[in-house]
Amino acid sequence: MLKKLLLRLFIGFTVGTFINTTIAIIASIIVNDGNYYAANPNIASTEISAVIIQFILSGILGAAFSAGSLIFESDSLSLLSQTILHFLVASLAMLPIAYLCNWMNHSILGFIQYFSIFVAIYFIIWLTQYITWKKRLAIINKKLKNN
């Protein structure tokens, strides 16, 4: 189990930094002024410090989501318990990192808006996964009945 957790942490960190870099590239293309915006410069005293901080925090975020997915592999928890626990892990990772990286406005309204968007995206991804797995299980059960 420890080996699986460490692997998930490593893969998650890598994916988190990849997603961060991809978003920075897309944002830079959208701004379209010839500059590369790797991180919000307001999160540190220098631009390179801001990039390093955001790189590390994005990796930690990816690691948290990846390791948190192990919750769904627990047979001792109900789907509702798994979902609530995973949502808590994801929220406790996402919200402080989003705040520190200035991905949200530093106000109550900014927090509410960011959290609302986070909940909506989480729900859409959860529902998509639920429907996908329900269809897969129906196919497997159908094959088992035919044998």
In short:
By secondary structure, the protein is an all-alpha fold.
Considering the chains and any ligands shown, give keywords for the structure.
147 residues; mainly alpha; 4 helices
What does this structure look like?
The protein has 147 residues and is mainly α. The chain contains four helices and no strands. α1 crosses α2 and α3 runs antiparallel to α4. The relative contact order is 0.09.
Unreliable sequence segments? none
**Helix/strand-derived class?**
mainly alpha
Radius of gyration: 19 Å
Chain-averaged pLDDT: 94
Q: What does the main sheet amount to? A: none
Q: Helix fraction?
A: over 70%
Cα distance spanning the termini: 34 Å
Number of strands: 0
Order of helices and strands: HHHH
Number of helices: 4
Approximate shape: elongated
Beta-strand proportion: under 5%
Helix and strand topology:
Elements: H1 2-31, H2 47-68, H3 79-100, H4 108-146
Helix pairs in contact: 1-2, 2-3, 3-4
